[in-house]
Amino acid sequence: xxxxxxxxxxxxxxxxxxxxxxxxxxxxxxxxxxxxxxxxxxxxxxxxxxxxxxxxxxxxxxxxxxxxxxxxxxxxxxxxxxxxxxxxxxxxxxxxxxxxxxxxxxxxxxxxxxxxxxxxxxxxxxxxxxxxxxxxxxxxxxxxxxxxxxxxxxxxxxxxxxxxxxxxxxxxxxxxxxxxxxxxxxxxxxxxxxxxxxxxxxxxxxxxxxxxxxxxxxxxxxxxxxxxxxxxxxxxxxxxxxxxxxxxxxxxxxxxxxxxxxxxxxxxxxxxxxxxxxxxxxxxxxxxxxxxxxxxxxxxxx
Length: 302
Known about the structure:
By secondary structure, the protein is an alpha+beta fold. The protein folds into three domains: 19-129, Immunoglobulin-like, CATH 2.60.40; 136-231, Immunoglobulins (Immunoglobulin-like, Sandwich), CATH 2.60.40; 236-268. It is built from three helices and 21 strands. The strands form five sheets. Strands 2-11-10-5-6-7 form a six-stranded mixed beta sheet, with no helix packed on it. Strands 13, 15, 16, 19, 20 and 21 form a six-stranded mixed beta sheet that branches. A four-stranded antiparallel beta sheet has the order 12-14-18-17, with no helix packed on it. A hairpin with a 4-residue loop joins strand 17 and strand 18 (196-199).
């Protein structure tokens, strides 16, 4: 009677979709989201909690941009992990040196033909951190007191995207200058996401050596230091430049007036308008047009 009840319970249990672990393959992993540093080893775990089949079929697939490709197939490493990975018991994948191209989703699949539940799979997401390279920094060579200026820092290789920090004379600038008694009167602001260092009004104390550092979880890199000089407003220089411009204008104006007074432009126009008049060297004085057709000279005898 007891055995009949046990069989009835088992039939009811299985009909509801519940399979005892001893009758089906079940997989698990220690981490479904895995981070790794570039060029360092990482192991993706695919642990078989329960299985009855002695030689199950194990496969790994890499899914990138929605497209799957084999990583482990027919008992060997395949694809872009060939010669860079190996299968470790029971079904783990060990990557010797990860690269940024390994960032993807990986699916472990186990088929066990002797188990009532003969298939299971588990999905693992791998993200490879990339250390930043030396950022490109832009620091103005010279600025004037009281003006605004911006220092720039940019790095495109690091993953995740790095955060930026600025250093002045080898000391890190705090995010908010009001947090430092020494910089409480400074007007700068730092954007840690874009790498910009902006001064609303430059002070003499802002002169010095500057460099930027890009940092993420994989490491950091910094650009060589560059010098920014700060000058006072050059009032004398501005006056001399303005005075020179006025003097130049007066000279040009005087030259034009003198040329007009000498009639240089009129004479040129007269010659251009009368260049085709015939020469009158025949000894006859024709006189003016309003005195008749012509008149004889006094030496003309009939």
